[in-house]
Amino acid sequence: MLAVEMTGDSVKAKNGSMVAYDGTMNFKKLTGGGEGIRGMVTRRLTNEQMTVMEVRGHGTCWFADRAAEISLVHLQGEKLYVESSNVLCVEATLRTGTTFTGLRGASQGNGVFTTTVEGTGQAAIISDGPAVLLRVTKQHPLTVDPGAYVAHQGNLKQSFQSGVTFRHFFGEGGGEAFQIRFEGEGLVYVQPSERDTIAGDV
Amino acid sequence: MTTPVIFDPATLPSDDNVNAYTFCVELRGSQWFLQKGKMIAYYGRIDFNGVGHGRLDRLLRTSFHSPLHASDWVVAEGEGKMLLADRAFDANSYDLEDGNLTIRAGNLLAFQPSLSLKQSIVPGFLTLIGTGKFVAVSSGPVVFMEPPIRVDPQALVGWADCPSPCHHYDHGYMTGVLGGLRALTGIGGTSGEEHQFEFVGAGTVLLQSSESLMDEVATGAVPQQAGVPGARGSDDGQGGSGSSGRRGQPGHRGQQPSGPRLPGQLGDLQRRFGL
Q1: Per the record, which residues fall in region Disordered (chain B) (predicted)?
Q2: Are B101 and B127 in contact (CB under 8 A)?
């Protein structure tokens, strides 16, 4: 559960994720992720829809979603890439947007676009089980299962690896046929659980 | 809210838990068996091969004796560190020293090839024999109990050092027609706890603190052979045709027939190939 203290300022949070508050709060649904007409159209086109609300007021507001674990990310001008379904709450000082991620999304059924959060402030992301933060450096690239990927930040290049061989047609695949490889410098968040992916059983 | 710890290949533990739900295995040219699809991330160069892979023949001969589960297991080999996790369940590693442990098939996440995996005669369970490390998951932390004990079937994760398990039915199940009807229909109310597994003898019983199970995967059937528990006999032989060649096996009658077998069907070999 995430507690946010507010003094007249606002946060953007996943629709319906408020579980309690004290003080005075205003909840306003933001159509199209609160990114204006252009953001709305982009989100609709990219199928990276995110229903968020704006919470403004004085007091403390608590957010939670299906008992998922919450990780707080402090951003200082960097950009965080996160699946829209994993965004719980972001500070109003952060800008959200949509970006193309390449083939990774296609394998996990989340679409080929992802949500970006940038600016200075804090963002709360949720994961099924506590997220593990893994550092990627030039010497140590990281390979991640698409179903366990939550978010990443930093200057990372991601590439999609497919290890499908003739063995898969005999049902003797390695079980990890689709992977995303991160190279560069940055951080990757993975969750100790795998979403149901199209490729999950291959 | 604790400050997040950032891991890199140097700070990740070697063959230990990263957190309660994630386990890190270090491979140095060595091999680990793991259940398909449970790897969440890895550093380094690691190959995943289905256990049918020809190169693994020698390894399989010594460590893998469970053909029915073959399509659920892969062998990871290479250099690096990999993270294993399963549905945000609690993951724990156990060391077995010249011992034996039987575990529900879906709860076993990975094991070292120094252990050998065999199918338990209890359907849906696997037995590990030997010395080595293995990783198991459970919904909620594992509780260790000493027999004699009766446990709820859903809470049972496994048992070690061979206490003998058996079914236990409450007295009410057997008292007359009314008791039977009650159990069958639920009319009049049942507590849902009329049936337990009973363990006696020396050993340890592992329980999970939740009654949610992993999805069970159909793993085919054990060879149809006289005296093999769980072997579903083809009951069509009872009509007198004698086609199954099983000479008079009464007592197998009550078990579920496996359905008609098509002529071209390769027994349960199909399972072996993941069909």
Answers
A1: 223-275
A2: yes
